[in-house]
Putative nuclease HARBI1 (Heterocephalus glaber), 349 residues
Amino acid sequence: MAVPITVLDCDLLLYGRGHRTLDRFKLDDVTDEDLMSMYGFPRQFIYYLVELLGPSLSRPTQRSRAISPETQILAALGFYTSGSFQTRMGDAIGISQASMSRCVANVTEALMERASQFIRFPADEASMQALKDEFYGLAGMPGVVGVVDCIHVAIKAPNAEDLSYVNRKGLHSLNCLMVCDIRGTLMTVETNWPGSLQDCAVLQQSSLSSQFEAGMLKNNWLLGDSSFFLRTWLMTPLPLPKTPAEDRYNLAHSATHSVMEKTLQTLCSRFRCLDGSKGALQYSPEKSSHIITACCVLHNISLEHSMDVWSSPLAGPVQQSPEEEYEPMESLDHEADRSRQELVLAHFS
């Protein structure tokens, strides 16, 4: 005997009839426990997203006008936090996988439109000084305004001929450049770089590098690991410390850089679509890049709402993304070498 299953008509949902909103699903009908277990975020956070993104998700030009903004947002959160369209959300509110896919696309673009509102590097002197004071208070490393690193996110092969996205492990990925502050807030995010590029090449070609090289952020520096070249504005670890002062410098560097390591782990733990546990993102590089950025926007919004950045509401181990092994980069910048040595002597001797 066939069991009747209510699934809303996909064409009606996507294209609508007279742009009517179908209110078959109500957010108020979902328990707080189900919201956290299925979507990874509390009720008030979701209400905020509905208010923030609602105008974009309700525009008459949007195909999915027939699906309410709150339903679209829950569909997208279900994908971001699980990495799969096969979630209980589809059963709970009765929308098809195709409709969920369209919801993810709509919400992703709405978050992309607001990326600059939530991901930004402070430019005023007071904010920069506050960053330096906070980082110095962590491990005694002076002058630091941010910690930089890259993370690979697996994507499907764009086509058989394009090898630019194949990283050293033979996997297709995007190499994403990120900079965070001491709280884990992402201040710079560039998610469009092909996986074949090494971290140092990504940074060299980034808009962030252009800003520092042009002196727009002078008298400050970033902290990066040994996958990057030493620069006057980028302090890396000493490859072979020879003195107690150099050891202390490396220890302070490692303690400070751990902020980024924890931030990336949290990002992938909360947003399982990024960690590869459910496979690669099944989108083009451009759409995959937008999804990654959307997750970064949500990460920063969650911080603004005082959510715990250092833990994820989702259970289970975090599968490592396909990051590449790298050889420590030797410094080719004598001025940068001198700056690092002066830093060691002045603050760690």
Observations:
- The longest strand covers residues 144-154.
- The chain has 13 helices and five strands.
- Residues 1-23, 313-324 have pLDDT under 50 and may be disordered.
- The CA atoms of residues 26 and 71 lie 8 Å apart.
